[in-house]
Design brief:
This protein is mainly β. The protein has a single domain, classed as Jelly Rolls (Sandwich), CATH 2.60.120.10. The protein is about 0% helix and about 50% strand. The chain contains no helices and 9 strands.
């Protein structure tokens, strides 16, 4: 007999109601993360995170075993890749393949925000 999984509940909210936590990764500067939707919410396939990077802040060069789908919500910045650096601004989208070395930094005068979707079960 097949065991049925309970359907996850709809989650609806405003990003400002989700706690912004400091990114505690060595080399990260002035970066916060809000877990908008995660596997803890019952999302079986994807997680949605909102990052905010203060002017001059950023993440260190790093890699993951999973892909990222990024959408720039606000501000300007640059993504560093193995082949160099690419500038971005509000409205740009970025696909970071699994295993790609990358980092993000804020090049603007105000906060930079981006949505980042990753597979459920990843951090």
């Amino acid at each position: 007999m097949r065991k049925e999984r309970a359907m996850p509940e709809l989650k609806f909210g405003h990003y400002s109601d989700v706690e912004a936590k400091k990114v505690e990764v060595e080399g990260a500067r002035d970066v916060t993360i809000r877990w908008l939707v995660s596997d803890r919410d019952g999302a079986p396939h994807f997680q949605m995170r909102l990052f905010e990077v203060a002017p001059g802040g950023g993440t260190p060069l790093h890699t993951h075993a999973w892909e990222h789908e990024i959408f720039i919500v606000k501000g300007t910045g640059a993504i560093a890749l193995e082949g160099g650096e690419k500038p971005f601004a509000e409205g740009h989208f970025i696909f970071v393949p699994a295993g790609a070395l990358h980092s993000f930094r804020n090049t603007g005068a105000g906060p930079m925000q981006f949505l980042c979707m990753v597979p459920s079960g990843t951090k």
